[in-house]
Amino acid sequence: MDVVIWLRVLLAALVGFIAWHGWFWAMSLSILMPCLAFSQPTRLGASAASVAYYAAASFPLAALAREYWPSIGAGAFAVWLVSSLVLALPWAICWTRRNALRPWAAAAAITLSVVPPLCIVGWASPLVSAGVLFPNSRWLGVMATIALPALLLARRTRVLAAITVASVSLLLNIHAKQIDPPKGWEAEMTHIRRPRQANVLAEFGIEERLQRAAASSNRSVLVFPEGTVRRWTDATAVFWTAALAGTPKALIIGAVEPISGSADYYNSVVILQSDQRRAVHQRIPVPGGMWNPLKPKSFALNLFDTGVAVVDGERVAVLICYEQLLVWPMLRSAVEKPALLIAVSNEDWTEGTGIPSVQHACVRAWARLFGLPVITAINS
Predict the structure, then answer these.
(1) What is the pTM of this model?
(2) What is the number of H-type helices and E-type strands within the chain?
(3) Which of 17, 313, 337, 343 has minimal Cβ neighbours within 10 Å of its Cβ?
(4) How many of the other CB atoms lie within 10 Å of CB of 101?
(5) pLDDT range class, residue 166, cuts 50, 70, 90
(6) Where in the sequence of the chain do the CATH 3.60.110.10 domains occur?
(7) In CATH, what number does 185-379 get?
């Protein structure tokens, strides 16, 4: 490969590193990645640029893999490399020599990277930049972001497209305002440190403290982080319902739910209100660490669930931890026209990595794109 090809590869890596380092405004740079990949003169060059982008963007994955599999050692870097190669597949497959088709191919690659099955590992998507570039534009912003690389690749339209996008983005951002959540809604931030092996007495003490906090609060809706309840049972339901004490208060509690008749689990939020219980399940648990179809016990994959529920009269979309980094769960929820975004996570296991700051940036981008107030509950 000649010098120009290698410069594009290095630039793609730089874009991936800066855009996904946790700086909100820098995420807009990710829209350049499709342009760098599809301006390459060969399929190998396009593949190298896309692999470099995803490898730089997802480098914290190596630390994450070591946390999930302490015995993996140097294999953590193999997990990081393989995931980067998988994410680069749409760009390698869709690349074409025909300049006239490259804009369409770029749009196709973006789409393929965020829908099933690749949506399971679809982090660092350029599509997340829609929330930075086009706040409050909703589905128009999604379509514009898919089309933007195509317009920038076409010689006849690239200058006009760049000027138009910059002008529209500036105008939308000037008028963008943060939307406050409904009055009476509140997130509970926790600092739970659990041993890997379950301890019944320790779990009871943790939940008792949280239940007292829920019972003493004067808020109408309380949101607790992912994994607040280690294992939801009928006894747990009775225990937590006592915190409501006949009030109209609602509790949204991150919990692990066993699946009836199966060895598998749901990673969920359980919604308690007026003696009623509903649950919203995580659509995409962390692949390998949580969702692993090769294991006898695994968290379930729910790709086509809505992730939307009605709480205290509000339609809420729920993103549970890893889902905040992806595109598919948010777009699937957005189809149901939610009025509020709830993001729950457990950052205890990601301590020391840049993953939490990237999650926060993604949640902010989704909230801005669809004009939603957001409530974030974190265990740190």
Answers:
(1) 0.93
(2) 13, 9
(3) 313
(4) 14
(5) very high
(6) 185-379
(7) 3.60.110.10
